[in-house]
Structures are given as structure tokens and as C-alpha cells.
């Protein structure tokens, strides 16, 4: 009953295609007239007790998530640094708006498609943290900036900067840009020092680009085990960015932004003089991969508590020491180890293919029974979120509405 209500409400909000639910894009990329996606919470006709949520489902323990949001906001205020939370984690405009309401200076998106969703939802301060080089993507960014002049894009090479300038000029837009620095990740970004200065000078000479500052994201350091080593390496990496900022400013180019950092280095990068804001993403949910990196206080990174869970059901028992669940590769991203059963000591999750998990229960203190719902901590939260259309936010043991993950799949 509740399940039907839920599905009807959701389909009503996002439209259908061929009988399947489709979270529609903004239409900016294709120009096609697609039904508009609601970014708002979808109320249910009646609350669902958490025990009745259809599985596998992506649940948020709202009270815990709110503690995480508040802790990060308080930390930023205490250190007088901004937050520019990365929405690649939650892909949910509703949550982005909450982060902004709590003081964030803007939000980050990894891809143009994600940024289109955020802008469509009414969020204006959006930084796209991956460079684009092709004319179609450049055109989409400029179209977006026409709607919201606060949309910014990182750039790491001169030809792309020139084409971006031409596209901006053609549309009568001043496009905000940040120079993307490679501070050691070797993924995107121009080398620090002279190469970055030359790029900044080139951008400064392009009339339709407005150089706001620098991005220095040390992605290779976020999961370094042990706080002391993470600290040493992150401070060293960011020192090169601060030095590059000085070099560019000494050349007479004003830079108001130096953005970077992530959950793994949240309390390290916030102490770097010159850093203006942190691009933290995972902190509101947390995942197993992050828990294992260790914190200032010990082996477990518990600065933030897990608030995101995939709930699965025990559906079969092929052998006394095994239980099969209804959640496999399609329920969890499997790039980082396996899910962990929350509150079920001794139960070990094993992959059972696309649709199933196979739990080893021989050492379980309290073996799960058929029909039990089992709460799992995700191995890696971002790509797991990308597998779902909606969150089930849980308060006081019940779900009263659904939160659309509007930017899921917007990887283009
Ligand atoms: C450019 C950039 N900034 C920030 C983040 C946020 O990182 P985290 O989820 O570790 O906080 C990411 C994550 O991959 C990223 O790619």
C-alpha cells in the first residue's frame, strides 16, 4: 500500500519513459522538451515505518546527518574559512540548499550536467570542479552562466580558456573561471608555479573571462592512512598552491579564491593561511572507506558519524552459515571493499552478484533471520548514491517524504 503510494508520487514528480522511472535532465544539454524534474521533497500519503521501506533502499539517518552538517559548519566558522560543499556526494539540490542555508559560500559540482541540475533548482553559486575542453560542454557552461552569472568553471589549459572566452563573448557573458592547479594528484590541473602564472596571465588578458582564483584539490591525499602523515603531506601540497597564489598576485592579478580540501583533510586544510574555502563532500554521509583512514584520535576516522545506509533484506538461506540478501553490485558501488553490516557483529558481507549479497553468519553473535532488514554502511558513498533515484530520510523511525537525487547519472 505504502509502496504503491510512494512509487506513484515519485513517478508523478519525475515522469516516465517506457514504463521505467526517469529522473529527467534539465534539457539544457539536448534542447529536448523533457518534463521538469521536481527537486523538492516528495511527500508520502502516509508515513512509512522504517521496517516497511522496500529494499534495497538508500536511507539517511537525518539526525546524524544534521550533526555532521552542524559540526562542519561550526568548524568553518571557528577557523574563519568558507565551505563550498561538493554535491558530487549527495547529488541532491535539497541538501545543497541546506548546506547553503547553513552558511556555505557556494557548492561544487563535478560535471556540467550536475551543475545544470543545481542551477535549475535555483542554486546560483556553483563551481564546476572538472575542466571541460569540447565545444559542446563549453557552450553548456556559458549557457548556464547566462542564467546564473555566479557559475564558475575550472580551467587548466590555454586553448580551452580561449575557446571559453570566445563562447562567452558570443553569448555576451562574462564567465567566471578558476585556474585548476595540480598539487600532486596528476589527474587534472596545471603545474604549480610558472605554468600556472602563465595561464593566469593568459586568462587575465581574455575580456570575457573573470579570473576568480585557484582550485587546489589534493585528491590523492584524502585517504592516506593516519592523521599525522595526511597532515604532513596535505600541508606540503597546499603550500605549493599558496605560493602559486602569491606569485600570481605579485604579478598584479587579484585572486579572491583558493578552494580545495576534502573530508579526509577537513581539520588540516582549514588551518592553511590563504585557503578561502573547503570543498568537503562525504562528511555529511561518511562511508567505510573513510572510516578506515584513521583520525587525530585513533584508528577509526569518526570525526563524522555514518548517516547513510543501504538497507537490504535477508531473502534466502542456502546453507546454515550463509544468508543471501537482495543487495549486490546494483545496490552498492563496489570499487572500495565491501559493505559493513551496521550493528551486526560477526556478520561478513560477500558479493553475490548483481542483485545479491551473501552474508557469512557463522561467527554472528545474533544471526539474521529470513525477512530481517539489515542496515549496511556503504563502502563508498558517492558512487553508491548515484545508483538510486531517491533517499528515504528517516526521523524517529519513520519516513514521511522522499528526497529526489536529481543529479544522479548526470555525468556528462
Ligand atoms: C575536486 C573535488 N573536490 C572535493 C571533493 C570532495 O571530497 P570528499 O568527498 O573526500 O570530501 C572531491 C571528491 O572527489 C573532488 O573531486
If you had to describe this structure to a student in words, what would you say it looks like?
The chain is of the alpha/beta class and 412 residues long. It has a domain at 66-287: Alanine racemase (TIM Barrel), CATH 3.20.20. It has 11 helices and 21 strands. The strands form 3 sheets. Strands 3, 4, 14, 15, 16, 17, 18, 19, 20 and 21 form a 10-stranded mixed beta sheet that branches. Strands 5, 6, 7, 8, 9, 10, 11, 12 and 13 form a 9-stranded parallel beta sheet that branches. Strands 1-2 form a two-stranded antiparallel sheet. Strand 17 (348-351) and strand 18 (357-360) form a beta hairpin. Helix 4 (112-120) runs parallel beside helix 5 and helix 5 packs across helix 6 (158-170). The longest helix has 24 residues, at 227-250. The radius of gyration is 22 Å and the shape is globular. Pyridoxal-5'-phosphate binds at residues 86, 88-89, 108, 110, 129, 217, 219, 222, 262-264, 279-282.
Amino acid at each position: 500500500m505504502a509502496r504503491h503510494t510512494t512509487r506513484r508520487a515519485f513517478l508523478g514528480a519525475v515522469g516516465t519513459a517506457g514504463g521505467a522511472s526517469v529522473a529527467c535532465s534539465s534539457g539544457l544539454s539536448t534542447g529536448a522538451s523533457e518534463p521538469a524534474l521536481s527537486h523538492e521533497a516528495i511527500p508520502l500519503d502516509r508515513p512509512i515505518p522504517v521496517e516497511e521501506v522496500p529494499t534495497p533502499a538508500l536511507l539517511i539517518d537525518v539526525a546524524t546527518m544534521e550533526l555532521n552538517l552542524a559540526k562542519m559548519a561550526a568548524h568553518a566558522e571557528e577557523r574563519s574559512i568558507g565551505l563550498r560543499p561538493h554535491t558530487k556526494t549527495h547529488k541532491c539540490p535539497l541538501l545543497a540548499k541546506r548546506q547553503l542555508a547553513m552558511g556555505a559560500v557556494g557548492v561544487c559540482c563535478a560535471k556540467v550536467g550536475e551543475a545544470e541540475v543545481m542551477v535549475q533548482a535555483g542554486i546560483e553559486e556553483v563551481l564546476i570542479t572538472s575542466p571541460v575542453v569540447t565545444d559542446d560542454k563549453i557552450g553548456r557552461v556559458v549557457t548556464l552562466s547566462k542564467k546564473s552569472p555566479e557559475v564558475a568553471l575550472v580551467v587548466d589549459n590555454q586553448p580551452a580558456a580561449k575557446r571559453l572566452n570566445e563562447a562567452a563573448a558570443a553569448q555576451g557573458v562574462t564567465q567566471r573561471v578558476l585556474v585548476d592547479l595540480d598539487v600532486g594528484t596528476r589527474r587534472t590541473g596545471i603545474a604549480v608555479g610558472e605554468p600556472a602564472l602563465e595561464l593566469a596571465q593568459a586568462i587575465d588578458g581574455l575580456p570575457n573571462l573573470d579570473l576568480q582564483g585557484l582550485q587546489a584539490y589534493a585528491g590523492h591525499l584524502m585517504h592516506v592512512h593516519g592523521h599525522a602523515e595526511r597532515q604532513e603531506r596535505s600541508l606540503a601540497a597546499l603550500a605549493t598552491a599558496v605560493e602559486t597564489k602569491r606569485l600570481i598576485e605579485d604579478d598584479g592579478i587579484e585572486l579572491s579564491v583558493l578552494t580545495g580540501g576534502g573530508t579526509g583533510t577537513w581539520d588540516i586544510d582549514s588551518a592553511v593561511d590563504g585557503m578561502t574555502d573547503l570543498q568537503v563532500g562525504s562528511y555529511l554521509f561518511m562511508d567505510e572507506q573513510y572510516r578506515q583512514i584513521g583520525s587525530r584520535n585513533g584508528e577509526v576516522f569518526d570525526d563524522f558519524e555514518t548517516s547513510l545506509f543501504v538497507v537490504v533484506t535477508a531473502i534466502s538461506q542456502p546453507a546454515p552459515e550463509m544468508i543471501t540478501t537482495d543487495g549486490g553490485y546494483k545496490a552498492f558501488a563496489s570499487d572500495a571493499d565491501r559493505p559493513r553490516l551496521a550493528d551486526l557483529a560477526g556478520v561478513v558481507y560477500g558479493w553475490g552478484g548483481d542483485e545479491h549479497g551473501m552474508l557469512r553468519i557463522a561467527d554472528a553473535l545474533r544471526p539474521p533471520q529470513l525477512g530481517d532488514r539489515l542496515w549496511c554502511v556503504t563502502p563508498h558513498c558517492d558512487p553508491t548514491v548515484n545508483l538510486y533515484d531517491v533517499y528515504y530520510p528517516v526521523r524517529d523511525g519513520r519516513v514521511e517524504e522522499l528526497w529526489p537525487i536529481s543529479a544522479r547519472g548526470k555525468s556528462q
